[in-house]
Amino acid sequence: MFASLGGYLIYIALLMIIPLWAQSKVKSTYKKYSKVATSSYMTGAQVARKILDDNGLFDVQIEETKGKLSDHYDPRKKVVRLSSDNFHGHSMAASAIAAHEVGHAIQDAEAYAFLRFRHSLFPLANLGSNLSFILIIGGALMGLMNLVLAGIVFMSFAVLFQLVTLPVEFNASSRAMGQLVSSGVIRNNEERQTKKVLNAAALTYVAAAMVAVAELIRFVLMFFVSED
């Protein structure tokens, strides 16, 4: 794909080093602020419940789930699921992550445009993730460039899903900060530390989007080179 060694190394960095760095940043930041309690000393579950109730989302439930940093919002069942450490934890990290997941619940309740668009993309993105490489590699091996092109089109849906995820996640974090302050969970002097947790988590989505775009560009260039 790349004519020079320098270009190839940049591609490898995008594909491997950046995601690994992002994951490392998340883990180190979470580890640091999971040891720092908030002034309110509320658990993640209590924070989530308070913010949900403050926004009139009494029907959204909160559940404890297994795993490390496995926290998520399930829009189908209207449930905020928090990993055990964050469900029971009194830390800034627990409060930030709980508020972030509730941010998704608020987005869902308000029919946030990017969230709705991401939901509509999911079937195609899931299909693209599963089929694109099979079509591209199979088409290349058999010399069927139309098959390769079909794989690239499917991959583009998966990449678009990654890109649409960015504003969804950034918006949820922005909502989380506002809710944490307005609800009194954190004080003004705790905002900086809480933002560090949310910003570190956002890096994983940025890294994933960069890798997805780099992969798509690589296959598009390969397609046009082969056509020549």
UniProtKB/TrEMBL annotation:
InterPro entries per the UniProt record, alphabetical: Zn_peptidase_2
Domain of life: Bacteria
Entry's transmembrane regions: 6-22, 121-141, 147-168, 197-225
Protein keywords: Membrane, Transmembrane, Transmembrane helix
Cross-referenced PANTHER family: MEMBRANE PROTEASE YUGP-RELATED
Protein name: Zn-dependent protease
Species of origin: Sediminibacillus albus
Organism classification: Bacteria, Bacillati, Bacillota, Bacilli, Bacillales
